[in-house]
Amino acid sequence: MAFITLNKAHLFHNLHILAIKAGGKEKLMAVLKDNAYGHGLRIMAELCHEFGLKRAAVKNVEEAKSIADLFDEVLVLVDAVPTEKLAHNISFSAHSYAMLESLHDGENIHLSIDTGMHRNGIKENEIERAMEIIVQKKLQIKGVFTHFRSADELNSEFFWQRSLFERAKKRIKALAQQYGLPKIAFHSCNSAGLLRTDTLGDDAFARVGIAMYGYNPLHPSFNPVLLKPVLALWAEKLSTRVLKKGEHVGYGGVYEAPYDEVISTYDIGYGDGFFRFNGITSIAMADGSVSKGRMSMDSFCLGGDAKEVCMFENATTLAQEFKTITYEIPTKLSPALKRIVI
Ligand SMILES: *Cc1c(COP(=O)(O)O)cnc(C)c1O
């Protein structure tokens, strides 16, 4: 059966480097959204907990509930307002007035500020009104955050957004003091932001996703930090045959054997969340063996007869082949695939 391996030493290596950058383990929030970028939510949450991380961010309430026992705080990034009252250590991202208005009184929130990405968050001139709603509804404002739209790109937008966030911080701190609110945790950096900056300033922590999983999102011209990919995908052989010269394999018969060759079929397909091989270009596996023809829903063919094959242990080249970003390759992998920590 196909499986995923998760390399604990690699994860801890990455977390160690990121913790040094951030100024301590307590200054990292593990971003475990979307089944931990496809790595497996519970298993990655347990490893992050073992490393000593105290905070995590997830996509929705369901994900938050499944790991709330492991962290001091779990932040829900993108869910509709929950109908139920959440556990004391689950916080909810409030992206608009409407969300603030519709939250239960007393709920824990992180207020999201739009500093230029224009995806979510309230605008700077909406801060006063938002703080009024928060106080009226006795919402517990645990944090205030923003998100950078291009911290990974070679331009100065990161600095522009950061200065807008600093301005918003000042306003919020003054209002918090006026209302007598407890200390608020400010946070802004994603992986690229953290790797790019020398200091978090007075941000309480960075929200790290892709770097923790072993990919450096920064342009190579930045000082390169060696991170090690955590996830590898393995397929197991179903059968082997000799494809005779001139025979075609798979749907559409798009691959024709140029000579008699040994090929084998493996138990991963696009139904497992892998990008579909179109058969027009050949894709190389980690061991150098190459795909033959189109991928089916549950299987694909390779030259050779290895019993097991590592489809990738570093998603970078596949991301280039499929014209996407590294994030997308692991994130799509089916939660049903078995995950093994090595
Ligand atoms: C996904 C996400 C992150 C993590 O981003 P990486 O680039 O993977 O580090 C941080 N903050 C928010 C709001 C996110 O949605």
Structure description:
The chain has 2 domains: 8-208, TIM Barrel, CATH 3.20.20; 231-341, Lyase, Ornithine Decarboxylase, Chain A, domain 1 (Beta Barrel). 27% of the residues lie in helices and 22% in strands. The chain has helices at residues 8-22, 33-37, 41-51, 61-67, 97-102, 127-136, 157-179, 191-196, 316-321, 328-331, and strands at residues 3-6, 28-31, 55-58, 73-76, 90-94, 108-112, 140-145, 185-187, 206-208, 231-243, 248-249, 255-256, 261-266, 300-303, 308-312, 338-341. Strands 8-7-6-5-4-3-2-9 form an 8-stranded parallel beta sheet. Helix 6 (127-136) crosses helix 7. The longest helix is centred in the middle third of the chain and has 23 residues, at 157-179. The mean pLDDT is 95. Bound molecules: pyridoxal-5'-phosphate. Residues 31, 33, 77, 147, 190-192, 207-211, 217 line the site of pyridoxal-5'-phosphate. Pyridoxal-5'-phosphate is lined by residues 31, 33, 77, 147, 190-192, 207-211, 217.
Question: Which tags fit this structure?
Answer:
single chain; 342 residues; alpha/beta; TIM Barrel; Lyase, Ornithine Decarboxylase, Chain A, domain 1; 2 domains; six-stranded mixed β-sheet; 10 helices; binds pyridoxal-5'-phosphate
